Amino acid sequence: MSDDDILALRNAAMQAAQREAETGNTEQARELYRAVLELHPGHAQAHFGLGLLEQQAGDVAAAIPHFALALQGAPDQESYWLGYIDALMSARQFATARELLELGRRHGLQGPAIEAAEQQLALSGAPAAQEIDAAAAMFAQGNIEAAGSAARALIERFPQHPFGWQLLGAVQFESGALAPALASMQKAVGYAPEDADALSNLGLVLRKAGRLDEAFASLRDAIALQPNHVHAHVQMAGALQEMGRVDEAHSSAKAALAIAPNHLEARKTLALILDNLGRPVEAVEQYRQVLKEHPEQTDVHSNMLLCMSYTDSITPEQLFLEHRQFGLQLATRVASASRWNNVPEPNRCLRIGVVSGDLRHHAVANFIEPVFKHLAGRPGLALHAYSNHPVHDGVTARLRQYVDAWRDVAALDDAALETLVRADGVDILVDLSGHTGHNRLPVLARKPAPLQATWIGYPGTTGLAAVDYLLTDRHMLPPGEYEHQFTEKLVRLPASLAFAPVADAPDIAALPALANGYLSFGSFNRLSKISRKVIALWASLLRALPDARLLLAGMPLGEQGPVQLKAWLHQEGIDAGRIRFHPRTGMRDYLALHNQVDICLDTFPYTGGTTTLHALHMGVPTLTLAGRTMAGRQTACLLGHHGLLQFIASDAGDYVGKAVALSRDPAALARVRSSLRSGPALWTPDAGMQVAEGLERAFRIMWERWCAGLPAVAFEVPPGPPADADAVSAASPPMPA
């Protein structure tokens, strides 16, 4: 074949490649360009065409060599310079792109296209390393406002560089602006899709926003890019735990600690996972290790106290001392106020503040919403809500309509929240969290309000001397028996609880025992509450009723938890065929499972609360062993309110004996089942009204004592109507000076 023939063939292939590329037939075009290069390896136009195809396919690394060879073969072609520069910028090789542009300028390149490329390169460049370090240091030192300003300045100058967006996202996240933080982190990942830090930070924000599947995907990608990325492993552990995949969560936390044995967040996460796996002794060991090195971690201390409440090896006296120690340690770091500007007028309208991280779709909201409905608009009270969670939902929107003032305070530090409560002139501040998540107990330790109380969120003492009262009732804490377990003075309301059940709960089915001929027991409690001693008692009951069955529902995904329960039941000699495990499910399906159960079995020493009420609303009573702590008396209290004293056992023998007695009278069980939902109960409108009236009277008594200069004392609120409206000024209280 002559040179002319080769040239003609090359030109024909080149023309065909261009046509195929123009019509979108990229594979055919790619093969034709390669054919041209086989005939002429230095063919600039073919290299340029291949470079464009590779870049369009997203493989910029493969495109860059072709652009370089195209420019080498035809340096007089402006489009080759521009294509090469664009590819380098896409690959974030800004320094090389800048050098190439300067070289092109020296070769005489000029005109609007070159100026546009120069401008884009200026915007797409990278800040100096010193500038990045300085901005990052501002954030690390807690100078959030300065860090935010630095982030915005970097974004203005380098809008396509990920660092500015990451820093801005971190500032927004720290400030509680979850939606903007998410948008910023997504921008960062968009500009740096293979940056493990950006992906891990995005995973954190997605997790906090409750978008767990997306968080998992982002964190998985971060770990794939950088297997030793500790932050990604820690966030993955947290996300997996919240997804119910506790076995995998445990592995992720262990992986993080294998990489960095002293990593604080990794150890905190491992402790929480062990707690949720029902391994409280190991969890407490991890919590103590963290507190030994970081005694200022009050959230860890609270988590440990909650975990201890589940532990049957700790006596009530030891548990109280541990809570008291929390208060004493906090008091050494935080000064409690003793002066306020609140006007001591006993009959004026009171500003009542409630602070909680659970003013959203959460179990606590089921208890407070029916009460808030009846507190709203009362002339003697003005409600102020301090919401300590960044996520809002439909429940949040409903709760907002019942209060006079709403404050989102998740982003405020303790000093700022104290200042806000004082500025609002709150007379009585009520904690609704105790030692559960998103609490603000360090703020209560500062005592921003003259009077402080705790209610609903936690079945136990705060341990804080700055909290004056705990709101309860005589069903929960009978007089004279439990005062020594609280730093607060106990205020017994006529009723301290009301409950909002699921609106579309399934209908109640007939008692299963009537058709089955045997009792079906059930437990819907968290795995962390089911200890070896609990299984031993349940096994005693199953041995006493050899035909009975047991359903264990709400089990986390994975095998670690159920495997342990199966092993314990096997050790007790219980046939595995009598036990059925059911994983976590949606609320309606969860409630429908109660139609397969005759009697629920309670845990101890931490008994059911919301779980017990859901069961009662589905017509299923709970057999409970009344404990010696507030946490141990929750179910007993709820049963007492519903007149079901026959389901409250005093000891293990009584527990089994009551189960046997109940099995002999299925007709009585059927009557209880059919009457629970429609009878007088904590979910009736009257229940919310009764609690609201009791609270208003309690607040007034507390306030009158404070106005008179008297200390907090325990008292019982008598039943009856609230204070005469004529005796209470409906005017707003004067603001503090």
Description:
This protein has 737 residues and is an alpha/beta fold. An eight-stranded parallel β-sheet has the order 3-2-1-4-5-6-7-14, covered by helices on one side. Strands 10-9-8-11-12-13 form a six-stranded parallel β-sheet. Helix 20 links the parallel strand 1 and strand 2 (381-387). The longest helix is centred in the last third of the chain and has 23 residues, at 685-707.
How many individual helices?
Answer: 32
Describe the biggest sheet?
8 strands, parallel
Strand order of the largest sheet: 3-2-1-4-5-6-7-14
Helical percentage? 40-55%
| CATH-assigned fold name of the largest domain | Rossmann fold
Alpha carbon gyration radius: 33 Å
Which CATH class of the largest domain applies here?
Alpha Beta
Low-confidence runs of at least 5 consecutive residues: 723-737
Number of structural units classed as domains: 4
Structure summarized in a few sentences:
The protein is 54% helix and 9% strand.
Write the layout of secondary structure elements.
Elements: H1 3-22, H2 26-39, H3 44-56, H4 60-73, H5 78-90, H6 94-106, H7 112-124, H8 129-140, H9 144-157, H10 162-174, H11 178-191, H12 196-208, H13 212-225, H14 230-242, H15 246-259, H16 264-276, H17 280-293, H18 298-309, H19 316-333, E1 350-356, H20 363-375, E2 381-387, H21 394-400, E3 405-408, H22 414-423, E4 428-431, H23 441-446, E5 451-454, E6 469-473, E7 489-493, H24 512-516, E8 520-523, H25 532-544, E9 549-555, H26 560-571, E10 579-583, H27 587-592, E11 599-601, H28 610-617, E12 622-625, H29 634-641, E13 648-649, H30 652-663, H31 666-676, H32 685-707, E14 715-716
Helix pairs in contact: 1-2, 1-3, 2-3, 3-4, 4-5, 5-6, 5-7, 6-7, 8-9, 8-10, 9-10, 10-11, 11-12, 12-13, 12-14, 13-14, 14-15, 14-16, 15-16, 16-17, 17-18, 18-19, 20-32, 25-30
